[in-house]
Design brief:
The complex is a heterodimer of chains A (about 150) and B (about 220). Chain A has about 150 residues and is of the alpha+beta class. Chain A has 3 helices and 8 strands. Chain B has 3 helices and 12 strands; from the N terminus they run αβββββββαβββαββ. The chains are: A alpha+beta (about 150), B alpha+beta (about 220).
């Protein structure tokens, strides 16, 4: 009787630990709150170019552009770079050739910069620095052409 | 034996609770999966729908196959298609034919994306990519040393204290730079001197305590 009782305790303990461990592991893996907070919308392979992928994900990386897209072809010399930063009052700097323009995003994170394009391909570098000194950079390539496309 | 049965009974009871929890988690996973599938579908629709906005591809030519040109753009292969109406322009801005293009030429192609992600090109211009590359850098850092003999100062980025930038400027600007100052500097590599950068602009500067300055490199 004592032997059976002892055996039962050992077996019970082993199974109990196993099931508890398994239960906790399942719970940790399937925690709905955890899953929701870590869902990342898949970024499909863009057909436009490699940099576009960066632009799509740039919202998670500090800022995003609202009107322009990488690899756009425009027919106006003055380009307005509108965008939104994920936090307010960030420093925004855009460079192209000798041009350096800077601004600060508003309380709503919105910013707007104007840069003068040269004929052909323009490799514009946009940098955002937030109040915690995090720095985010994106290159956008905009083609300026007055020819009929 | 009775104890063994009692122990097993205790073990069976929480298992059913686990089953319920697992079922609930499975429902959550399913709903998340549906949301993700919906998002993927939306994104795919955006991508596969041909754009009505003109787009451009650029890179060096890898292969020319009839009216189809394959280019390498940032280590990705892109296909551009041409027609007899496509305009080709060389570096001297003279109109040429597709036969004058060769592998290795760097081109800028303008046109419209089709549903296969290929660019149906209206205009191809031969370019020099090294002249277009933007090599400016933005450094948000702290001045750790200012040379007494030349208009040169050193800054250490706030987010990467293991690196430092030796920056050359003019005699007027150097007077405004002091050790310990926090600045956002726009710089570009000096074409003649390695590991030296030219200052293009100081966006903002703030005087801060010099206590956090960790290194004082020799200039």
């Amino acid at each position: 009787m004592l032997k059976e009782l002892f055996l039962a305790i050992i077996l019970g303990a082993l199974l109990g630990f196993g099931l508890t461990g398994g239960y906790l592991a399942i719970n940790k893996k399937n925690d709905p709150n955890k899953n929701i907070s870590t869902i990342v919308t898949p970024t499909p392979q863009s057909v436009e170019n490699t940099s576009t992928q960066e632009n799509i994900s740039s919202k998670q990386e500090g800022f995003s552009f609202t009107a322009i897209e990488d690899m756009d072809v425009v027919s106006k010399e003055n380009l307005i770079i509108d965008g939104t930063t994920t936090s307010p009052n960030n420093t925004i700097i855009a460079t192209l050739g000798d041009q350096i323009v800077n601004s600060t995003s508003g309380e709503d994170g919105k910013f707007s910069l104007q840069i003068k394009l040269t004929s052909g391909l323009n490799n514009i570098k946009v940098t955002v620095i937030d109040s915690s000194n995090n720095q985010f950079e994106k290159d956008i390539n905009i083609t300026y052409s007055t020819a009929t496309i | 034996m009775i104890s063994l049965l009692i122990s097993l009974l205790f073990l069976i009871t929480p298992s059913s609770a686990i089953a319920i929890e697992a079922s609930s988690s499975a429902n959550d996973i399913q709903s998340i999966r549906e949301v993700v599938q919906q998002k993927v579908k939306e994104k795919l629709n955006i991508i596969t729908t041909p754009s009505n906005k003109p787009k451009s591809f650029f890179g060096s030519i890898k292969k020319i196959n009839g009216l189809e040109v394959e280019i390498n753009q940032n280590n990705q292969n892109k296909i551009i298609t041409t027609t007899i109406d496509t305009v080709f322009v060389n570096l001297k801005k003279t109109k040429i034919s597709i036969k004058e293009l060769k592998v290795g030429d760097e081109i800028l192609a303008m046109g419209y994306l089709n549903s296969q992600g290929q660019l149906e090109t209206k205009r191809i211009v031969v370019i020099e990519l090294n002249k277009i590359k933007n090599n400016t850098q933005i450094i948000n850092g702290q001045v750790v040393d200012v040379s007494q003999n030349s208009p040169v100062f050193v800054i250490v980025p706030i987010n990467n204290k293991n690196s430092q930038y030796q920056i050359e400027t003019d005699s007027n600007t150097i007077k405004k730079v002091t050790t310990g100052q926090k600045i956002i500097a726009v710089i570009k590599p000096d074409e003649k001197i390695t590991n030296t950068f030219n200052l293009l602009k100081i966006i903002s500067s703030t005087s801060v305590s010099t206590r956090s300055a960790t290194t004082t490199p020799k200039l």
